[in-house]
Amino acid sequence: MKKCASILFLMLYYAAQLYANHIRGGELYYKYLGPGNSPNSSRYQVTLKLYIDCFQNNPGQNDEDENFTVYEKGQTNPSFTVNAPKIREEQIRYDPNSNPCITNPPTDVCYNLRYYQTSIEIPDSKVGYTIAFQRCCRLDGIQNVSNSGRTGVTYLCEIPGTDVLAGAQKNSSPSFEAGDAVAICMSSAFKFNFGATDPDGTDSLSYALCDAYDGAGERQGTCFTCVTPNPAPPPPYSPLPYRPGYSGTVPMDPSASIDAKTGVFSGIAPSAIGQYVVTVCVSEYRKGVLINVHRKDIHIKVSDCVPLNALLSPEYHFCDDFKVAIRNNQNNPPGTMYIWNYGDKSKPDTSYDPSGNVTHTYADTGVYQIKLTALLSAGQCIDSTTAIAKVFPGFFGGFITAGTCILNPIRFVDTTKAKYGVVSKWSWAFGDEAATNDSSHIQNPSWKYSTSGSKSVQLIVESSKGCIDTVLNAVDVKEKPTIALPFRDTLICNIDTLQLAAIGLGIFNWTPNVINLMRDGNTSNPLVFPKTTTTFYVQLNEDGCINTDSIKVRVTDRVRLNAGNDTTICLTDAIVLHPQTDGLRYAWTPAATLSDSSMLSPMATPTGTTVYEITARIGKCSATDGVVVTTVPYPLANPGPDTVICYRDTAYLHATVDGISYAWSPLTTLVNPQSLNPLAYPIRTTVYTLTVRDNKGCPKPGVGSITITVRPPVIASAGNDTSIVINQPLQLNATGADFYQWTPPTGLNNPDIQNPIANISQNMTYVVKAYTADKCYDYDTINIKVFTTLPDIFVPNAFTPERISNNLFRPIPVGIRKLDYFRVYNRWGQLVYNNSDPGKGWDGTINGNAQGPDTYVWMVQGTSYTGQVIFKKGTVVLMR
After folding, report:
1. What does pTM read for this prediction?
2. Which of 107, 144, 237, 601 would bridge with 213, disulfide CB 3.0–4.6 Å?
3. What is the tens place of the pLDDT at every residue in 741-769?
4. Which of 363, 391, 419 is the last residue before a domain boundary?
5. Are 69 and 185 in the same domain?
6. What are phi and psi of 418, to 5 degrees?
7. Same domain flag for 61 and 197
8. Is 746 helix (H, G, I), strand (E, B) or coil?
9. How many angstroms separate the CA atoms of 489 and 487, rounded?
10. Domain region containing 843
11. How many domains does the chain have?
12. Cα torsion for 266, 270, 276, 277, to the nearest 10°?
């Protein structure tokens, strides 16, 4: 059992190596060696060149030989299969140090080239042969191929038959030149040379981008040899599954293309870094006849490098203004300096913009040669290019159309303006989705559409000076012509004449067109004069396209009008007038107090009782009516002037009214709110509203308000009680208001200031009144003990927490202006209490935890009123 498992493991390992993803391109080509040993046969040397990734870490796809399958064209059974041994291997890579003008050069552009070669002899054929090779697998993550790791390769070469051209079998494949390892940088200009030579020396070559072929990319079950099928299947072969937006002819950015004559593939590289499969087909022509198409594909790596490149379009046309804007067509490495020479003998410009953006104003029209020089590293790296600038401003493309009906051709009229030169080329695209030939190159073409709807028409127009403009307009193709009517229903008086109106392209015909109803009925705007309500029909004929519409003309013999009912409003209020009428035009008087005297329902703001009259008209008929708006003043509601009170004080309100009822609000802080003179006791600033009603006609109440401003409470403070020594001056300091009065005045130098100085020889209690300019006040007291000793700090020697008395350990300062600190330590030197407020003390706890009975050390320091520092220390006993 173990032996079987080992064999299975080795088979799986070997299969994994076969299936490894290494291939980065290749080609199969042949060389004509001469006639074969058999009559009417030829000998060829067939070579397979495989590009293998240099950076894969396993030995997969390191085959020592490969198999080529030969098919005569048109046959599905192979003629034979031949084995080709590996004859050599070489490596090519891009040297990142080769170009100092590329920032962040790639280090992973590297191919291992493996060559497999053999010789074959085949009978000359009229149809020719296809030689094919298949294998998996391409690299994972190719940018332009879906699931690229599950794809493979098919490389083939074709030997032409004698039916194509006599002697065509004596041919060798084109030979591609070297130079596959190049640096291509994202979003930058690049060139990749697919140029080849003709070994026969008789054929001409033409290059084109084409599909790369898939092959042998999917492993089926345990079919490990499916990765290298032998024989290879017959043609035709399937193209790679390109990602959306990519194809064989668009393998990278759409701007990239190949020169059909030189084989140089160039353009702007994509912005996404990674591998891109690019395939080139080289067509061989001999004596003007296509005898062979040879293919080569390679995975081109786009890197995140930044090259120095001066890149301009070959030609610029500035046709809008003399002020032109131009830039380098790619971003260069940071620090690049751009020098612009505009070709008009003006001073060159220097730009350090990442794209070299500049603007320049030419003095005159003309054709100028622009030169751009890009420099980097103080001139160590330099690149330059030139372009042609054609400056001929004043070119504006445009066109109009005539006709709208699907039954007839739409006529297009070019309206392009050219200040310089003449309009010389037109390219029309009519946007007809049902046609493939909907284009024209004449100046004023016509086109008949087969479907109706909005069509997007494009005109590309060019002047003799090279100016080009593109115009896009939407053209509406209708089943029938459009008739635009300014109205469809109207009213006239029976003595009036009305002019109808219709807008459209074509011939108009109105009915009923009779002598007593209408005049000019075959025009777009006839006159009508019906005596009764009549519907007039209009027909529009646009070259056989017919459309109809109608206008109803209602006829009346008088104007119906009711200005509305008389009404009463409060003086200074506004009211909207609402008359009832079938009139079409209106005029109100007097106009001074109306928002708009020509409106049907204006806003009226009368300054007194007013009669408003309205005249309504229908043509020559009119009617007049009036409405009386009576104004009554609002009831008088005067709650009195605003006032200010102190906190928790009261105010009497004294209102004056002219009405039959009144009400105060809010009621919660009023005493006797049913009277005109209630007592208010708000604790915060309050607005009281008085509402008054009467029976004089004003439908709204009169409203007045009074604001009672409540001053914040005054909180007086005379300071903490204190002790002094006899004959020691004590400066008092009160807070809480703007003004102060101390009583009694005994011993005070000034009893009417905030901070008087007291000189007393006995205990004294002072009362301070703190008050504001609004006479709001509060009282506080301070008790002063007078000792006959010098300034000192007395500290008790014991205290008993949690008892009624002596439960707080605190100092008693005498004659001390400021207590600097009071600190208590336990027997281990730990600070258990620290404070500088003489009114506070230690309660025998640390962080809320009660301390046990013990002896504690204290220190205290204070400063007397004369500046003397008093320091004392000692012990205290905590007892419980």
Report:
1. 0.52
2. 237
3. 999 999 999 999 999 999 998 999 999 99
4. 391
5. yes
6. -130, 115
7. yes
8. coil
9. 6
10. 792-878
11. 8
12. -40
